[in-house]
Amino acid sequence: MKAAYITETGSPDRIQFGDLPDPQPGPSQVLVKVGAVAVNPIDTYIRAGLVAMPLGFPFIIGCDLAGTVEAVGSDVTRFRAGDRVWGSNQGLFGRPGTFAEYAAVDEQWLSSTPDEQSDEQAAAGALTGITAHLGLFLHAGLKAGELVFVNGGTGGVGSAVVQFAKAAGADVIATVGSEEKREQCKSLGADCVLDYHSSSLDDDIRQFSEPHGGVNIWWETQREPTFDRTIGLMKKRGRIILMAGRDARPEFPVGPFYVNDLRLVGFAMFNASADEQRRCSDDMNRWAAAGRWQPLVGRTLPLEEAAAAHRLQEENTLQNQGTLTGKLVLTP
Fold it and tell me: How far is CA 119 from the centre of its chain?
């Protein structure tokens, strides 16, 4: 099979595209004919060696996939040949990645793909959707009627946060960087969309959140959070969610934080168990069937351009170029 893989960690130029042996599914595994994969920041960190993971070389890169079941192992009970499936959490903790024509995946990490989603959409929403669901519900305990703020409402995770919060009956403030993204974010359901370049941004957030008494859940996607600013906009007993900023060392206003009963939660989706992630995917599939979950596909490239895709992802993650809306998807 054709696959995108590395034989050592390093820059995107380390990614090779060529032939590797077809995987053989074990007893609990599903052999998936891959229809689409998505690029995530964690993929680039693992490829670069910035996040330590056990890697057996040649190592196939990638976490997410969507496709069609080709065969199943003897112990598999949830899927059969011909089923459409999607999943994430591959390329981690010794599991092979997904950037290939075929992938052998343990059934616990797979979910059925709704008829309403293409493979490209299902792959685009895999890691980002699970991340958004875990943060909002498992970690922040979102309730109907609360107010959620998210930086970057048309990004991979941000667009999922907007849609899931609305599906749960919350109000949403989101920021974007252009008029085009503003209209797109509104179409996702955001109640208030603000330009993060605006000099009056904090005043605008404060004005919209006043009827709520402040922001209940602040979803921080920025690599360098500013807690003095954030904490001043929170409602008592509000929750701040961190999912970025691996090297950040910001100042922290301890007094205003604890006297307002605030909570700060950091999490990474790959720490969640398969059962926890399945609860996410069940809701995601239900919302997709109801037209309330539409993963944003930004650009689609052929799998052989995996190195270029990693460079583009790094330009947006590390250099904040802002040239991506939604997810970067590749097809074999």
Answer: 16
